[in-house]
Amino acid sequence: MVTLSFHMTKIGIDIMGGDFAPLAALEGAILALDKLSDDSELWLIGDQLAISDLLQQSGIDSERVKIVPTTQVIGMEEHPIKALQSKKDSSLAVGFGLLAHKKLDVFASAGHSGAVMIGAIHSVKQIDSVWRPCVASAFPLPDGSKNILLDVGINVDCKPEMLVQFAKLGTVYAREVFGIENPKVGLLNTGSEESKGSLMYQKAHELLKLESSIEFIGNMESRDFFDGHCDVTVCDGFAGNLILKQTEAFYKLLKKRNIEDDYLNQFNYENYGGTPVLGVNGNVLLGHGISNANAICNMILAAEKVAKANLAEHIKKAFN
Amino acid sequence: MVTLSFHMTKIGIDIMGGDFAPLAALEGAILALDKLSDDSELWLIGDQLAISDLLQQSGIDSERVKIVPTTQVIGMEEHPIKALQSKKDSSLAVGFGLLAHKKLDVFASAGHSGAVMIGAIHSVKQIDSVWRPCVASAFPLPDGSKNILLDVGINVDCKPEMLVQFAKLGTVYAREVFGIENPKVGLLNTGSEESKGSLMYQKAHELLKLESSIEFIGNMESRDFFDGHCDVTVCDGFAGNLILKQTEAFYKLLKKRNIEDDYLNQFNYENYGGTPVLGVNGNVLLGHGISNANAICNMILAAEKVAKANLAEHIKKAFN
Fold first, then answer.
1. Complex ipTM value
2. I want to staple A60 with a disulfide (CB 3.0 to 4.6 A). Which of A55, A153, B32, B269 is the partner?
């Protein structure tokens, strides 16, 4: 008799994270359940009563859903390091513990973003040669492709060498998760000439030209961001955050003007789901604090893709 | 018998500046002529033959149009300082000379932006206590008001003290040109909390709180840029340039998606016309290099507003 060893992809969700937790997180998880592949499991980490009540109400009784009961919550206003140290039974601390012990293939949270970053760095640790983990956002382009922007907010004070690392991280992300063989990398800047931009960007341009593991195509003005010249656009976290949030501003304007357009509706933050934390020894997804059920659902689907691609493992290889 | 002394507002236009000069510049000037006030004069600075030919073809024979013949042109690829020094009879050098000698009330050019900045600083000079001149762009908001963003591209490496000066410059611009009594000033940033942003932005926030001549309301995320919280938003020239050009990117997307909307159509760069150079002892407008006739026309109308408000004089007072 043959026993088939079959690996289920275990997706851990912080049910207590986000402004509308636990309800939005639970509803999002339930929405995602139908869309996930049959070999994916959802591990719901949080208040047992809240979780089991909603599962029961929704008639969910699936072997692919596990509950990991926790009793504490890290609030949005708490100091991330202190909170993670003192609240050992918080959904965040427990989720990262499971990830570090390889009980989970990916952990996703829409909770306190500082605490998610600290949790990732303290539990699964940074990849040795990565200076600073970062987060990436994959912007939809009109032709259906993506422009992956990074860093979008973690590292607001950057050195040029960090931008080269972001380029490598983005390249692996584009290749392994979006299947782009040789991702073209641009440097966000104020003009196409090499001499453009701040001193930091001028130096980054020089270093990017020398980096053989990426396909650097030069500077990219924000005017051309959606034109499909690049698959990956690198910048410091301050600039990336401005670009990300101006896209939200633009979406708000479209709603205010009652404009409906299938492509432009993708700028709704809900569709982004979550951004992977790149440069740590584990697959971590960071969701938007204001996530509703739909956004959580998309975060979970993004987490599944990242886990099935085993993104963190590929990044480790690229940096060794 | 009484002789009325009547001041005509003299608007100098660099007819040779811009990618489509001299034709676009001339056509723009002709378009503007009907829209300018009766006490405004247009001084067309450039190739005499080209100017007189087109005026004749268009049947323009007005005492309010003067030709200032010049024989040289500063190209977009030239070194700005060398070009201004060697080409004394270029439209740019002559225009700035007339401005410095107070023959013009304002000078506007869509030519080489570096040469326009250098020309302004060398001819009319910086205002003594202004560290660095900057340029501002007035973004249209849905309610008809403006959000004036500065710097939008000149100073890509900034010190916190410069952002405080930009706040003062923007405040005078908003008050004198747009008639906003007490302009609310925001600091572009990645979050609303004081501790957000790079070290430079954190320090700028501290200094802005202490500046009594402005109405500082705190940080402004790009997500809320069009929501009308601020009249003036300050940032370094790198960040401002990204925001300005991402707005152009959105406009391009709208066109690609065949979306027509009266408000959003204002994001067409043509409607911005030109940005005033703030912090020099004279009224200078810098146009977009790719300006077509319509953009030039709007640059001229903006120049008239700046000249009639005598913006440079008000800024000088505010800094003394």
1. 0.93
2. A55
